[in-house]
UniProtKB/TrEMBL annotation:
Highest classification ranks of the organism: Bacteria, Pseudomonadati, Bacteroidota, Sphingobacteriia, Sphingobacteriales
Pfam families cross-referenced by the UniProt entry: PLDc_2
Any one GO biological process: cardiolipin biosynthetic process
InterPro entries found in the cross-reference section: PLD-like_dom, PLipase_D/transphosphatidylase
Record-linked PANTHER family: CARDIOLIPIN SYNTHASE, PHOSPHOLIPASE D
Protein name as it appears in the record: PLD phosphodiesterase domain-containing protein
All residue ranges annotated as the PLD phosphodiesterase domain in the record: 171-198
Organism from which the protein derives: Pedobacter psychrodurus
Gene3D superfamilies the UniProt entry points to: Endonuclease Chain A
Amino acid sequence: MFYNNALCDIYIGKGAGKKLMDDMRSAKHSVKIISPYLSPYLISELINLKDKNIDIKLITTNNIEDFYGDRERNIYKLIIQKRNKDFDRQTIRNNWIKFTQTLSNISYGLIALLIVLAYYFRDIKVFLGSIPIIILFLIRGWYKTKIKNIKIYSYSYKQLFPFKVYMSNEKTSLIHSKIYLIDDQIAYLGSLNFTQSGTQFNHETRIRTTDLNAIEKIRKEIEDLFENAYIPAVDLQTWGKQLYLEPIN
């Protein structure tokens, strides 16, 4: 993108994100962000905006601070796990469970009977009756393995709001832009990432503009980058499987 003569405000120094955050929290319709780095507590800001029915669109990289961190941290809240149940398999599993319980009852009954017979007849041949008991326990063990391995649940994942996580490594183009577009009316550009250090503590550069022509070009740039098919992105389903446990039954 190239655009000359845009009207803008310039800020250089610490606390470059204060005005940005004020405008973002006052958004009426939408917030769009490109930032290669994110902080967990600022992800919570986006979640709060989503809860207020603000449309969010986010482009970032796998440099998110808690990308592979604690399951309780905020990146997990951006991905919603849906558990799908196979009711036919559940019925089969329940039938197997009942069958193994029946085998157990029969086996323990036979053991009790065998003990009584051995006591009264005091004949070692009585213990030949343990053979069918052993067979019953083997069958029971086989079914228990089948019960353990049958897959009742499958899992799929969806996004809390639209976002792209592009891969950041030496083999791909690094998404390094920091762009914020609020209500398609206010744009911020500069060096500050959507992180606590970037918005509050670092010495950063920040440009704020409401220039209509610039806004339109920035909006299109964000949309084009979001739909880019040539930059490797993290697959949502694969990422979800890395973030969440997936019990099979």
